[in-house]
Amino acid sequence: MENILFLTEKEVIRKKLYLKYCLSNVKSNPFNVDKSKKKIIVALAADYGNLGDVAITYAQTKFLKENFPEYEVIDFPISRTFTDMKALKKICTPNDIITIVGGGNTGDMYDDIEYCRQFIIKQFPENKIISFPQTVDFSETPYGKKAFEKAIKVYKENNELILIAREKKSYEIYKQKFSDKVLFVPDIVLSLDLTEPKLSREGITFCLRKDGEKKLSQDDEIQLINSVKKYGEVKFNDTHISKNNMNIEEREEELQKIWDTFKRSKLVITDRLHGMIFCAITGTPCIALDNSNMKISGVYNAWLKELSYINMLSEFDLKRLKKEISVLLESDIGEIKLLNLGDEFKDILKALT
Q1: Residue (of 85, 40, 51, 73) closest to 257 by Cα position
Q2: pLDDT tens for each residue of 151-183
Q3: Residue whose C-alpha is closest to residue 310's, from 334, 344, 282, 341
Q4: Less CB within 10 Å around the terminal CB: N or C of the chain?
């Protein structure tokens, strides 16, 4: 009975969202752009408090602006997906490119975002659509299987859609269903280099999740925190903040805060994917603990395992953790080989041209 009520509630929410689209004013024009200029849309731009998704939006926009200066790159926030869709379609031509923000929300855990993604895909049947690097995570529950079938149907209806996976498991899922329209590319945040300027480092920062993707038990977390106190100051931060409807300037300000926090830390211990990725792009020593859907180990093994300052544990092992902490705290950061994945993003450039 609870399941039925839960699904009904979701259906009601989606009908309300679609009603917002139906009632939106086609004459409104929130986009101050030249209709004659070629455009690239950054759809589902994260204006909410998940700084991992905000960083993806930032990196994706930066990547597009740097590589396609002849295009106008337009930020289309997820919060405006339904209210401003008619206005967006009014300024777009079939020659414009739609990009969808990457992340880890292709699945039924965050199916509100998946619903928005499918809505975007349906609205632009004649446009090239590039879904930036994603993790696919549909559960094996009856609801998850049904949601996956629906996603496949919607994706296949658009012949111009190109899907990109950021780790092997998702790539294989995409390849099985869509074969020739699938790419394997790192998370777009890994295209950033934030190692400069260097900041003075002190203490250990924990960046731990508190949601359904958490794998670390509460007892193990307490043990871990207590075991590192002997190394100095212990700080706590998270890639989730309590903010919504942020404008571009606010998003960048929040990103700078967390990047600076990491750059001021001798070590970060995290079970958040973008906690690990932020360490990779800032040159910060990191121990990453895998999460429930293994996207951390997937991204680590695909792109980061050669970095000596990033270590990843698939299972909690306090003895091994203590050893890794000691090694990383004693390492000379000035001598480490930093991240360089520049060539790995060439397939996205080819897909966009």
Answers
A1: 51
A2: 999 999 999 999 999 999 999 999 998 877 999
A3: 282
A4: N
